[in-house]
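== Folding the chain ==

***
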Amino acid sequence: MDKIVTVHIPWSKKLDSLLEWNEITASIVEHFGLPGDRYVTELNENYMNFKFYNEKDGLMCKILVSEYI
């Protein structure tokens, strides 16, 4: 079984606009589908986490959103 990989994206001044968050989430959904089968999401006022069940998917997501983390 793969280990769960968490991609942690903090809320920050760099990601202060809705446009950036739309781009991040749209990009992740385009590549990995909706949450459920391959990953789940967790969010609060400080961050958004994407928890991937497959290590390779998690690493690919980290690369995909690397400019934001």
Q: What stands out?
A: The first strand starts at residue 5 and ends at 10. The mean pLDDT is 89. Residues 5-68 form one domain. The radius of gyration is 11 Å.
